[in-house]
Amino acid sequence: MRQFSGFFGPYGGQFVPEPVKSMLDELDHAFQKYRNDPEFFDEYQYYLRQYAGRPNPLYFCANLTRHLGGAKIYLKREDLNHLGAHKINNTIGQILLAKRMGKKKIIAETGAGQHGVATAATAALMGMECTIYMGAVDVERQRLNVFRMEMMGARVVPAQSGQKTLKEAVDEAIEAWVREGDAFYLLGSAVGPHPYPLMVREFQAVVGREAREQILAQEGRLPDACIACVGGGSNAIGLFSGFMDDTEVRLIGVEPAGRGLEYGQHAATLCLGEPGTMHGFYSYMLKDASGGPAEVYSISAGLDYPSVGPEHAYLKDSGRAQYVYASDQEAVDAFFLLSRLEGIIPALESAHALAHAVAVAPTLPRDAVLVVNLSGRGDKDVEQVERLVRQGELRIPSL
């Protein structure tokens, strides 16, 4: 599906005050102007190659596949990008766009910190002032990423409202963007009002393009399924975009079931939510008793968001993609399993996708092929996991 009107089926749009709409329209005009401009595309590709380090490998997990005894598991190694995640694909594109719009200041939000780190790095590269909003709770559980952002010259502002996590970081970043007026708001996921979901998808589509070419080269055919974690949904929509028209390829998004499916204990928006409007766009969301955004939780700071990108909502309703969930413990089990069998420590976000692959691979024939998007590396999560294991909240699995 290719959608340029601001909606994906009924989802998306711009549900914002008029002053914000004029700022979004300015951004949309610039994006439509430059997205097919050869000079812009060449510069974007240059930085993806020479700065981010693309293309990254599609890696066959021979040990994990043998251990599970079923389908072949391939990892799209976004963890090998500069700074360790898929986020830089988008920050390069948006900051190059900001330069062409004459902007000097960047405002961004971050959850797990990977988008914040990528934003800080790209802003430093391009000589731009950078302020990043991060939930106060996430500041504490991702201290290393906070220091990395500050090392590269960014100012990190803890969001103190509400649950003090990703939703509140987005709230406060948008408020700052509107207040400052002349800044560029660099949204990190495929959420928000138009044109952000489309723009982020376009800049993350490199993941799917590469994965499609690589699996055809290595297997001589397309995969049976592509699997990615879903919070806001940027890494998943990037992978899915390369296979959207290949209806024989199943697209599977994995949401966080957290500690359980009771209110406030998970962030499984597409699986358990309903349509609604927040942060200026219409999509599935988890709601509280009054219809506002629900309290949510995930062990992964990058997944605890009460809504989801509107294109994912459309893919769910149309049946083109399937959405499932994995618990904290299932993600941690996958976190350790990949570390022990392949020597690769996945981000806790990515471990949710891996957990689903681990569950389904043994049920499939040995010639089946699964592509899992390893959206980031887990260095940032090791201290948190060690602490939770030491406190008895999680267990270390046995092989």
CATH level 3 topology of the largest domain: Rossmann fold
CATH class of the largest domain: Alpha Beta
Class per helix and strand makeup:
alpha/beta
Please indicate the count of domains.
2
Kindly state the number of beta strands.
14
What letter string, H or E per element, gives the SSE order? EEHHEHEHEHEHHEHEHEHEHEEHEHHEH
CATH architecture group name of the largest domain: 3-Layer(aba) Sandwich
Shape: globular
Q: Determine the N-to-C terminus distance.
A: 41 Å
Query: Roughly what percent helix?
Result: 40-55%
Strand order of the largest sheet: 3-4-14-9-10-13
Average pLDDT, rounded to a whole number, is 95
Beta content comes to: 15-25%
How many H/I helical runs? Answer: 15
Care to describe what's here?
The protein is α/β, with parallel strands linked by helices and 399 residues long. It folds into two domains: 8-48 and 87-196, 3-Layer(aba) Sandwich (Rossmann fold); 53-84 and 205-390, Rossmann fold. It is 45% helix and 18% strand. It has helices at residues 18-34, 38-52, 62-68, 87-100, 114-126, 136-141, 143-151, 166-180, 196-219, 234-241, 269-272, 310-318, 328-342, 348-360, 382-390; strands at 7-8, 11-12, 58-60, 72-77, 105-110, 129-135, 155-159, 184-186, 225-229, 250-258, 274-278, 281-285, 321-327, 369-374. Strands 3-4-14-9-10-13 form a six-stranded mixed beta sheet, with helices on both faces. Strands 7-6-5-8 form a four-stranded parallel beta sheet, with helices on both faces.
